[in-house]
Amino acid sequence: MSRTERAFRTQAIILKRRDFGEADRILTVFTPNYGKLDVIAKGARKPTSTKTGHVELFTRTDMLIHKGRDLDIVSQAEMNMPYMGVREDLARGAYASYAAEMLDRFTGDADEGYDDLFELMDETLGRLCVDDDPRLAMRYFEMQLLDLVGFRPELAECVVSREAIEAEDQFFSYSMGGVVKPDYAHDGMGVVPINMLTLKLMRHMQRSAYSHVKTLTITPNLHDDVERVLLGYITFLLERKLQSVDFIRRIRQM
């Protein structure tokens, strides 16, 4: 959908914000029809502003946005989903920050429909508020986001030989984006080991609805191993480590 109109109304999830000037805030928001936008909420830091409280991080807000010379301007804002669970719990908030950072890094600024990504982020924030296992919600988010942005990892067949994967421990290649059978894994390929249980869980998250995935009971060791493989792959794709990862690890140590 083109943003040629002078003003438009949209749902928006607030991914980032920063203070600007004496009273304004610049927001990075994600919308279903216009993708990722940087907008300015004028006067949002004033206690008397009608926008105060409606432009908080990790909330879903109904916005009326007017085209501006340098930045689009938030003329009206009404929060309609506060996701209180991620705002009241430090660990869940850290996962929300990670999801927002990952979505921000994997998407550009474009006037295109991003309704599937918006729905995924909306659902993930909701899950982080209430689910007993927020780590599982995050791993599912990673698998689904990688699929939607075109980096779906190949988990069913060897990326070298294109042979079907057998029920045994394998290797994973970040550069080739998938599983490598032991017979084809050699020094210098940059592969990492992936055990069969980890691979099965990743396959399940890739092809199944979250309602089926969340019924699983995942051991801490299995969580750690899936996280190791996925974070390694994501870091390779982005060519940098996400800043929120260290924050999550510090919270776990606490």
Q: Give the SSE order as H and E letters.
A: EEEEEHHHHEEEHHHH
- Kindly identify the CATH topology of the largest domain: de novo design (two linked rop proteins)
User: What share of the residues lie within helices?
Assistant: 25-40%
Distance between the termini: 45 Å
Gross morphology is elongated
Number of helices: 8
- Give the averaged pLDDT, no decimals: 91
Number of strands: 8
CATH class of the largest domain: Mainly Alpha
Main sheet strand line-up: 1-2-3-5-4
Q: In terms of structural class, how would the helical and strand content be classed?
A: alpha+beta
Summarize the structure.
By secondary structure, the protein is of the alpha+beta class. The protein is built from eight helices and eight strands, in the order E-E-E-E-E-H-H-H-H-E-E-E-H-H-H-H.
Description:
There is one protein chain. It contains eight helices and eight strands. The protein is α+β, with helices and mostly antiparallel strands. The protein has two domains: 76 residues, Beta Barrel (OB fold (Dihydrolipoamide Acetyltransferase, E2P)); 164 residues, de novo design (two linked rop proteins), CATH 1.20.1440.120. The strands form two sheets. It has a five-stranded mixed barrel with strand order 1-2-3-5-4. Helix 2 packs parallel to helix 4. The longest helix has 19 residues. The model has no long low-confidence stretch (mean pLDDT 91).
